[in-house]
Amino acid sequence: MNPTIELLKSHRSIRKFTGKKIPEDLLRELIRAGQCAATSNHVQAYSIIHVIDPENRRKIAELAGGQDYIADCSDFLVFCADMRRSTDAAGRAGADVVRGMTEQLLVATIDTSLMAQNVAIAAESEGLGLCYIGGIRNNPADISEILRLPEHVYPVFGMCLGYPDQNPEVKPRLPVEAILREDYYSDARDEELVAGFDRTMNEYYRERTGGNKDTTWSEQLKPLFTSKLRPHMRDFLRKCGFEMK
């Protein structure tokens, strides 16, 4: 495999960082690399908040579920889906702008995700480690207030960046056969393939924890579809101007 594919396949979430700071010029280059990601109709529907203030980072760490590495990493970014800049620009150009469409929410969220993944790959190519922070959506209204986000902008996730102070194993992924369909969707082998992956993940968890974590991929999914559903997100997004019309 070529070095780019090897880099992609070596991704790990890093939650422990050294005290070394990322040079400002390197951080800006990572953001520029992020901007080179594909973007729907060149809308570039994202903004990134570089959270520098230590007190704000501490508050966000608490609001995101007590994730202390938000405060400890070299740099913390919040990636925001942003339909304000582009719709304002279209309005100034003379358009009778329609806002709040579901498609606009999708475009902004997808653009933001693609941009962030470019930043992640660029960071790892420079020897940096990172961890996405979906816990931003635990309390998105409070975090939006801290970041002073305007209407038509919402925080999708955060990203911790820094120089790794740990070397975790790469977490296994589902076999390609479980996600790659030919010509049409078929789940005929899903039960078999998931059962095999459950065994793989059980072995991974047991080895990583010295036998203290005896679970499977399927077991780990249970709270995601029962208790960790973030039912507040629909009303929050509507209050942000994403009416999903």
Describe this structure in words.
This protein is α+β, with helices and mostly antiparallel strands. It folds into 2 domains: 178 residues, 3-Layer(aba) Sandwich (NADH Oxidase); 31 residues. The protein is built from 11 helices and 4 strands, in the order H-H-E-H-H-E-H-H-E-H-E-H-H-H-H. A 4-stranded antiparallel β-sheet has the order 1-2-4-3, sandwiched between helices. Helix 2 crosses helix 6. The longest helix is centred in the middle third of the chain and has 24 residues. The mean pLDDT is 97.
List the defining traits of the structure above.
4 strands, 4-stranded antiparallel β-sheet, 11 helices, Flavin_OxRdtase_Frp, Oxygen-insensitive NADPH nitroreductase, Nitroreductase-like, 245 residues, flavoprotein, NADH Oxidase, NADP, alpha+beta
Main sheet: strand order:
1-2-4-3
User: Distance between the terminal alpha carbons, to the nearest Å?
Assistant: 45 Å
Q: Name the structural class.
A: alpha+beta
| Secondary structure: helix percent | 40-55%
SSE ordering = HHEHHEHHEHEHHHH
Question: How would the blueprint of this fold be written?
Answer:
Blueprint: H1 3-9, H2 24-35, E1 46-51, H3 54-63, H4 69-72, E2 75-82, H5 84-92, H6 102-125, E3 129-133, H7 140-147, E4 153-162, H8 176-179, H9 190-208, H10 217-221, H11 233-239
Antiparallel strand pairs: 1-2, 2-4, 3-4
Helix pairs in contact: 2-6
